[in-house]
Amino acid sequence: MTPLEWVLQLVLLLMLAAAIPFALRLERALREIRRDRSALDSSAQGLGEAARMAEAAMVRLRASAELAGRQVAERTATAEPLRDDLRYLIERAEALADRLEGLVRAGRPLTNDAPRAEPAPLQSQAERDLLRAISLGAARTAR
After folding, report:
1. 41 in a domain, yes or no?
2. Which residues of 32-65 are buried (b: 16+ CB within 10 A; e: fewer)?
3. Where are the transmembrane segments (predicted)?
């Protein structure tokens, strides 16, 4: 072997010795990438499972909301006639209250000094009940 060949082989040996630490660092980095890749794959599977569960929950939630909407609509439809009946009864009650107030005012004496006229004999139980209610109402308001 010639001295040139020895020099070339020595240079090659030094280059190989310099490449070994780089190869070791590369091997460690590849090992970490493989480990991270398996963790990433398991995370992706977990994410896919979570997405499927979220979709199923969303479908159940939508079905529950539709059912609740139908129930509210049914109850509203049932309540509307009752509301109309109550409105009618309130209007009638107000009219009757106005009439009763007028009768109470008419039944009260204008002054306490005026002689009271004897009431005419009552003809029905309803008239007697009305007179009793008027007198009780007048006594309560006087207190």
Report:
1. yes
2. eeeeeeeeeeeeeeeeeeeeeeeeeeeeeeeeee
3. 6-26
84 lies in a domain? yes
What distance in Å separates the CA atoms of residue 18 and residue 104, rounded to the nearest whole number? 119
User: What range does the domain containing 83 cover?
Assistant: 26-106+121-142
Distance (Å, rounded) from C-alpha 71 to C-alpha 65? 10
Nearest to 101 by CA among 112, 113, 93: 93
Of 112, 107, 110, which Cα lies nearest the Cα of 136? 107
Residue count (the chain): 143
**Number of compact structural domains in the chain:** 1
Considering the entire predicted model, what is its pTM? 0.40
